Amino acid sequence: xxxxxxxxxxxxxxxxxxxxxxxxxxxxxxxxxxxxxxxxxxxxxxxxxxxxxxxxxxxxxxxxxxxxxxxxxxxxxxxxxxxxxxxxxxxxxxxxxxxxxxxxxxxxxxxxxxxxxxxxxxxxxxxxxxxxxxxxxxxxxxxxxxxxxxxxxxxxxxxxxxxxx
Amino acid sequence: xxxxxxxxxxxxxxxxxxxxxxxxxxxxxxxxxxxxxxxxxxxxxxxxxxxxxxxxxxxxxxxxxxxxxxxxxxxxxxxxxxxxxxxxxxxxxxxxxxxxxxxxxxxxxxxxxxxxxxxxxxxxxxxxxxxxxxxxxxxxxxxxxxxxxxxxxxxxxxxxxxxxxxxxxxxxxxxxxxxxxxxxxxxxxxxxxxxxxxxxxxxxxxxxxxxxxxxxxxxxxxxxxxxxxxxxxxxxxxxxxxxxxxxxxxxxxxxxxxxxxxxxxxxxxxxxxxxxxxxxxxxxxxxxxxxxxxxxxxxxxxxxxxxxxxxxxxxxxxxxxxxxxxxxxxxxxxxxxxxxxxxxxxxxxxxxxxxxxxxxxxxxxxxxxxxxxxxxxxxxxxxxxxxxxxxxxxxxxxxxxxxxxxxxxxxxxxxxxxxxxxxxxxxxxxxxxxxxxxxxxxxxxxxxxxxxxxxxxxxxxxxxxxxxxxxxxxxxxxxxxxxxxxxxx
Lengths: 165, 489
Hints:
The complex is a heterodimer. Chain A is 14% helix and 44% strand. The mean pLDDT of chain A is 86. The radius of gyration of chain A is 17 Å and the shape is globular. Chain A has a single domain (4-161), classed as Deoxyuridine 5'-Triphosphate Nucleotidohydrolase, Chain A. In chain A, β2 and β3 form a beta hairpin. Chain A is mainly beta. In chain B, α2 packs parallel to α5 (149-158), α9 (230-257) packs across α10 and α9 (230-257) crosses α14. Chain B is globular. Chain B folds into 3 domains: 3-197, no CATH class; 210-220 and 233-359, no CATH class; 363-387 and 417-477, no CATH class. By secondary structure, chain B is mostly helical. Chain B contains 20 helices and 5 strands. Chains A and B meet through α1, β6 and α3 of A and α16, α17, α19 and α20 of B.
């Protein structure tokens, strides 16, 4: 696993094959991870969608019904987004990530948010050569609403070097 | 007062209240829907004025109806007329203004709104300047330089005391762009031309621009043709003035955006404004499209070739792009040629540096940033920030990697700031050149050109959005620390 210093060093290397951008300040990279911020694009689940169940065996129908179930919202930087108990939302990291062939990553929640009931159950493994923003699946499993600001550090990305023979 | 008269007044009061209530609801509804717009500051300014106008109309109507109840004859009729006129004026102002708010900008255009608003503030010399954006069915870019126009007219009737405050309001313009091309971030460099129009209007109003004086002096002796037809003379002068504003907006847009504006203008005009084998036609509003493109060439070339004649990195892309522009000058008659020469003389006399001012995009910044943007795009990295202390120079020496991976701190690295945002115009310019290189020079297969364009637009749009967020976050760094009560691992 890469340490903060190693991450910083690789981000500053001349070869542009690894990027996590933008980084607001060096504090965002500490310990053995890079903090990821909540981006402005969110897909939130609607309430009152009636009797709805997703059956993977009926994929086409499931895709159609997803549109009834989810809605896209965009919140400007610094504005609040409320995640109520039991709510689920799909968000994106603000940072754009490019991984080289010799690095893989894992996006996980920050435990300080976890203690408040926020679970970031993302598809955690980020494959080498990945390019894009990281999808974050947010769920409030606590009992009080959570106020998340766009731009807040919400998750962390750890990086591991691949052993290639 | 007779029972009939009272009944009439009661009826008018009821109807007026219904109409006013509908107007107030309309404003509130638009306000509710506008909350996530990126041009919210401008929208709020407009809605505040409309709300004020609604409340002033309410009090005017209430006062007039009270007076009508206590009056008779012509005075009574006058008061009731005031009520009717006030409602009509309010609704006219409301419908004229609200129609600018019902087609909000698409998600893909949002990234460009704040950069253009900042440019507008600099160009008008007024920090309060706001823009709102509207997608339109026509494939055209336009500016309505004074969105308060309708309100201003309405206010004369319903609240004359508001006239002066309205005159003191900052410049406020509506930018219309082709809705079908909302994801065409590259093409939206043309918006700069419209923002310049707003700047020119404002500078003319405040007397900071000599454009009108130069035009008047040069166009004084202009004749409409061989005859002594005064209408033809004035028509030609009007056309020339309009052409002057268009040419000036092109020249200044190139200075404030860089060559991306030139590329976008050509791509915007080329498919529809120029028929094959001809130069396209000038009209009363705009000069010949080909001439518009050709007259920008010396200014555009300055970005690619320095004063000593040394060619920059992307000169080959620029030269290849020039081959797309028709060279023919057929179709220009004597009067048109004469006007074109006169326009160049006028523009020569105008203080372009003064008009562009702090909005100018420096050529040095172009030369510094574009290679970095290009390099990042080659690696499919969003060109958002310039990482400080990054190793530069061509080729990587093997000894660079080993100590860095061990995490040895570099004593020269800045300890407090990680990076600086890349100017959105550098992203646009570098992105355009990178796209043109792959589509025109590197020879991508025709089938993949559309895909290449789509990818370029998406990456440039996303990069500008992130670079803007980065810039704002650095500005708001202190506030953001406050907004992070949850700290720790």
